[in-house]
Amino acid sequence: MSDTNDTPMSLGELATLADVTPRTVRYYVQQSLLPSPGSGPRARYGRPHLTRIRLIKRLQKQDVPLAKIRSALESLDDAGVERLLTTLQAEPDHTDQLRAAMSTPAVDYIRGVLGGRSSLPAPPPRFASAPSASPVPGAASLSVPAHAPPPQLTRSQWERLPLSPDVELHIRRPLSRHQIKQVDRLIHLATKLFQEDAP
Amino acid sequence: MNLTARTDRALVRTTGGSIRYALLDFVAPRMERTSDRPPVNLAFVLDRSGSMGGSKIELARLAIRNALARLDDRDRFALVAYDDVVDVVTESTPATAEAKAGALERLARIDARGSTNLSDGWLRGCEQVAVGLTADSIGRCLLLTDGLANVGIKDPEVLRTHAAEIRARGVSTTTFGVGADFDELLLQSMADAGGGHFYYIDSAQKITDIITSEVGEALEVVARDAAIAAHTPEVLVEQLTPLPFERAGEATLVALGDLVSEQSVQVVMKLTFPPAQTGRQHEVTFRLTDRDGVLGGASATLTWRHAAHPEVDAQPRDRSVDRVVAGLYAARAREEAVRFNRAGQYDAARWALKGVAARIGAYAGDDTALRGLAGQLMGEQQLFAAPMAAADRKTRHFASANMSRGRDVQGKANRAR
C-alpha cells in the first residue's frame, strides 16, 4: 500500500473516519503515538494518522497497554503499520475457532445432540418456571464458530441448557465473548460434576 | 500463488451508495506428491430405508467398496447404516487392509428396510469421524440418502445449525441425494453449512462415480479451511456466492472450505461505498488464508475513487466482471425460482426470474452474452409458473447451485488442469 493517494484531512475529519473524539487524537499526538500534524488550525492529518489510530484501537482491544503500543509504533514505518493492521484485522481467527472447538470438542457436541433428542432454539419463555420436556442442544451452540454466518440476534432471548436430566442452566443471549467463555467453562465443569455423581 | 482482483467499475459517486463488485480469482496449488497428502478421516453414512432397495443399495455398496480401495493405513473410515434405527456397521478405524476387508463383509449384509432416521444416522457418522479426529486430518461425513427425514430431527434449520457447529469442530458434511424423493433444499443447506458438497444423483448408475470423485477430492486437498479475507473500513461488503460469510468489525471473511489440487476458485464480493468528496480513494486488500499457511497469504488490492457524476457515468465497465456477476445473480434467481415452485408459489417464481432479467438487461448494453442471459431468464419464467416434476426441479436446482458455488455441472470441483 502506498500513501500516494493521501488526501490531507482536518482534525474533525480524521476523528470521524477513525471513530474517535478529536480530543483522543490530540492526546495521541501529545503522547507521541501519532506524528505531529503541524500546529494551529492549519494542522493537517493524513492516512498515516488514520492507520495508526486504527492500529492503536485494535491493539487496545487486545488489552495491550499504551506504553507498549508506543514502542511498537516507534519501530514501524507507515508500510509496517498498514501491514500489521491488515494482518490483525483481516486474518481469520483460527485460534479463536480452535478455542471454540476445544471448549466443546466435536464428539461432546454430537453426543449432546444425540443424547438430548434435540429440537433447537425453541426459545423458552422468559423465566420459564416449570421444567420443560423439550431440552435444548448442548452447550456448544454458545460458542461462535469462526466461519458461521453472523448471528442475527436483535433482541435478547433466553436459552435453556440441560446440565443433567434434572438441572438446567438459563442464559440470556446475546452474551459477550468473555461471558461465552465463562459459560463454556461453567458447562464443562458442570458436565464433569454431574457425570461423577451419576449413579 | 497468484490472486487476481478485478472490479466492474473503478469510480464511485460522491453522494454515496455506489455498488461495485470485486471479482477474485485464483488457482489452488498442485499436489506434487500424493505421499504428502493429509490423512483423511471419513464416515460413510448409508440410508438403508425400504426405498433404497434393489439397484440403489447395490450400487452404493459398490461405491463404498471403490472408495475404501483408495484409502490407506494413514486414513480412517467408519461405516454407518440407518433406517429408523442406526447401526454403526464399522466403528472408526485406521484403513488397514484387514479393516477394509472386514467392513466390506459386513457391508454385503446391509439390506434395505424400514423408515428414515436421517439425523441420527448422520450424527452417528459425524461422531465416528470425531472420535478419531487429529489436528492434521480432513474429517468428512458422507451421507447418502434417497428419502426424506421422517424420524429423528426433521427441522431443516436445526439440522443446518448442527452441521455448522460440527463443521466448526473439524468435521464437514457432504450429502448425496439419490432419485426423486429426497429433499434437495435440506441436503443442500446441510452441505453448505457443513462445509462440504451436495450432489444430486439422478440415476443409480452414477452413485459410484460421484462418491469415488468426492473421496478422491478429499484425498487431493491441498489447503484446509481456505478463506478470502478483506480489510474493508467504511465499505459495506456482502457476497453473492452462498459460501459461509462473516463480518467482524472492519474485516470480511469468505470461507472457501477445503481446496483440492489445482482447484480454480472465483469469488465475487459486493461493495457499497459511503459518500465522500471527489478524489477520496478506497483501497481494499484481499488476502488468501488457510489453516496451514499453504496459500502463503497471497494478496491483491483494488482501488476505487470518488468522482463527479459525469465522470462516473462515462467510465468504462469491465464486461468480464459484469458477466460473472450477472451469471451469479441468474443462478441465485433460478435457485429461488425452484424454491418457490416447490412451495407452489408460481407467481413469486416468475417474478424472481423476471426481476433479475430486467436488472441484467438494464446494464447489458450491446454485450451479447449479457443480453442472451437476460433473454434466457425471461424465457424460463413459464417453466416455473406451473407444477414441475420432482426430478426436473432437482436437476434445475443442482445446475444453478453448482453454478453459484463454482462447481462443475456434476458438482465436482473446477480444476485448472
Low-confidence stretches of chain A: 1-5, 90-102, 118-155
Instruction: Give the rounded overall mean pLDDT of chain A.
Output: 66
- Helix and strand content put the structural class of chain B at alpha/beta
Return the string of H and E elements of chain A: HHHHHHHEEH
Q: What is the end-to-end distance of chain B?
A: 15 Å
Shape, per Cα inertia axes of chain B: globular
Structural class of chain A: mainly alpha
Largest sheet of chain B: 6 strands, mixed
Give the tally of β-strands of chain A.
2
Oligomer: heterodimer
Inertia-based shape of chain A: elongated
Distance between the termini of chain A: 64 Å
Poorly predicted segments of chain B = none
Element order of chain B: H for helix, E for strand: EEEEHEEHHEHEHEHEEEEEEEHHHHH
Q: How are the strands ordered across the major sheet of chain B? A: 2-16-15-10-13-12
Summarize the structure in words:
The complex is a heterodimer of chains A (199) and B (417). By secondary structure, chain A is mainly alpha-helical. Chain A has eight helices and two strands. Chain A has a two-stranded antiparallel ribbon with strand order 1-2. In chain A, helix 1 (11-18) packs parallel to helix 3 (47-61) and helix 3 crosses helix 5. Mean pLDDT of chain A is 66; it is low at 1-5, 90-102 and 118-155. In chain B, 38% of the residues lie in helices and 29% in strands. The model of chain B has no long low-confidence stretch (mean pLDDT 89). Chain B has three domains: 4-32 and 223-314, Immunoglobulin-like (Sandwich); 38-219, von Willebrand factor, type A domain (Rossmann fold); 319-404. Chain B has a six-stranded mixed beta sheet. Chain B has a six-stranded mixed beta sheet with strand order 6-5-4-7-8-9, sandwiched between helices. A four-stranded antiparallel beta sheet of chain B has the order 1-3-14-11, covered by helices on one side. In chain B, helix 1 packs parallel to helix 6 (207-219) and helix 8 (319-342) packs parallel to helix 10. Chain B has helices at 55-69, 97-108, 118-131, 156-168, 184-193, 207-219, 309-314, 319-342, 346-364, 368-384, 390-404, and strands at 4-7, 11-13, 19-27, 40-47, 76-82, 86-94, 138-145, 171-178, 195-201, 221-231, 236-239, 245-248, 251-260, 264-272, 281-289, 299-307. At the A-B interface, helix 5, helix 6 and helix 7 of A face helix 3, helix 4, strand 10, strand 12 and strand 13 of B.
